[in-house]
Amino acid sequence: MLRDITLGQYYQTESLIHRLDPRVKLGGTLLYIISLFFFRNFWGYGVALVFLAMVVRLSHVPVKFMVKGMKSILFLLLITVVFNLFLIPGTELVSFWRLTITVEGLRTAVTMALRLTFLIIGSSVMTLTTTPNNLTDGMEKMMKPLKVFHVPVHEVAMIMSIALRFIPILMEETDKIMKAQIARGADFDSGSLIRRARALVPLLVPLFISAFRRANDLAMAMEARCYRGGEGRTKMKPLVYQKRDRMAYLCIAVYLAVSITAGRL
User: How many other CB atoms are found less than 10 A from the CB of residue 158?
Assistant: First the structure.
């Protein structure tokens, strides 16, 4: 399960999406996520699905790899669907025992499931096709106007990038610790939900120790390289918009126009 988390990982391959400017991918992902909340019908989600499928196809990232990332949020997705399905009042559709499924509840449950699925896959495409360095540079460039308000843009961008990249590292570390404890007789799969939750407590101490050790190693590496923040730093590969980036912006604008129009009819 832990190895199924794709958010924060980078998939090395050659594709058009990989070559795009990170600012395009960051801005496009943000606009795509925002657009999901403007739809009033399923036509908008259909357009969003087609657009996302095209992007995944152009990224050359295997579809199985994308779908695998959904396993990690399956429990959250199930809770979201169940709560919306049974707790929203409206026109009765099916009733059994004390539970009632309404037309509005079914519609909301499907809508929330689609939103969450598209949100996770769309965000995963961005991280899978963008290196940590490019991700940091893109965030820094996009947040540059905040310097007027004395916001340490470079440091904030680096913190966000490091946090995002540490997700798969910590998940892999957790998986190793679990396997080591299972080899010593620990049981994480049997028993009630509360018992399984308690069985995970012994994982926290070694996981926190490992996280602090990695953070300390990173801090020492940055100190050894005389890192002093972003002030006055230059870029080996400065970000410059290419023709493909402008075409990508145009495609995003067309998607927004078509999807929001179709989704609000």
Answer: 20
pLDDT tens for 15-64 read 999 999 999 999 999 999 999 998 988 899 999 999 999 999 999 988 88
- Residues 58/16, Cβ–Cβ less than 8 Å: yes
Please provide the size of the chain in residues: 265
What does 10-68 look like in DSSP terms, one character per residue? ------HHHHS-HHHHHHHHHHHHHHTTS-SSHHHHHHHHHHHHHHHHHHT--HHHHHH
Q: What is the dihedral of CA 120, 123, 127, 132, to 10 degrees?
A: -120
Answer whether residue 1 shows pLDDT above 60.
Answer: no
The H or E element containing residue 62 is none
Give the H or E element holding residue 10.
Answer: none
Residue carrying the six token digits 């002030």: 231
Task: Report pLDDT digits (tens) over 120-167.
Answer: 888 888 888 988 788 888 888 888 888 888 888 888 888 887 887 787
Of the candidates 72, 59, 48, which has an alpha carbon nearest to the alpha carbon of residue 10? 59
Residue 248's Cα: distance from chain center in Å? 21
What is residue 193's predicted lDDT score, i.e. its pLDDT? 66
